[in-house]
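Lab notes, practical 5.
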Amino acid sequence: MSSLTFNYIVNLLSRREYSEFELRNKMQEKNFSEEEIDDALSLCQAKNWQSDRRFSENYINSRAQKGYGVGRIRQELLQLKGVSSDIIDEVLMESEIDWYEIAENLLRKKFPNYNEQQTPRMKQKIWQYMLSHGFRSDEFADLIGQNQNEWD
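Output from the prediction step:
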């Protein structure tokens, strides 16, 4: 492994966390050989400078704070970040994120009157929005159109 390869990967990792897939792609774009890439990644993982598990934990927390649900985050980690589904499942099981609360906060922010009686068209718009943000219907369905006056 050349010092150029090592310096490049350490420089990247000093700025933020990367998945192994992302680092491999960045290094391939710079035309490093596969052997150099493998050696550099192995060294960084051995020294615990790069960890897909740690990357996933940070990514899940970050995306959850921005109002995204499990479905969307899982898809991004799998397809865009190249993290294995086993690691994603482990991290999600261990996370203490209240997805119901995140869904409610997102509804409150995007649709301030979400808990009032809604027209079918508006309900459909809210459902599409929430589903596109990766929430399961059981995480938000009971929040829509539940005005207190309905129960009186």
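Observations recorded by the TA: Helices lie at 3-15, 20-29, 34-46, 52-65, 70-80, 85-94, 99-110, 120-132. Confidence is low (pLDDT under 50) at residues 147-152.
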